[in-house]
Design brief:
The protein has about 70 residues and is of the alpha+beta class. Helix content is about 25%, strand content about 25%. Strand 1 (about 10-15) and strand 2 (about 20-30) form a beta hairpin. The protein is extended, with a radius of gyration of 18 Å. About 0% of the residues are buried.
Length: about 70
């Protein structure tokens, strides 16, 4: 969904970790007013899951299906 300029800001930082391998960090900042059209608002409390997580087999099946679509 396109957003007006200034409502969303992303930063990427890369640096070698303690083991010498390069690591990347992404920071995403969103203006509170940009969340309102999505049904969220700045005064809303932290969201919490409303149902239990799907079982492990469901996640595995979804990952297999995603891999099949790529090839």
């Amino acid at each position: 969904m396109p957003r007006p300029a200034g409502e969303l800001h992303c930063d990427l930082a890369c640096a070698p970790g303690p083991d010498g391998h390069w690591r990347g960090w992404i920071t995403v900042r969103v203006r509170a007013s940009a969340l309102r059209p999505l049904g969220l608002h700045p005064d809303q409390s932290t969201s919490r899951p409303t149902a239990p997580s799907p079982p492990g087999w469901w996640h595995a099946a979804a990952e297999r299906a995603a891999r099949r679509k790529k090839t």
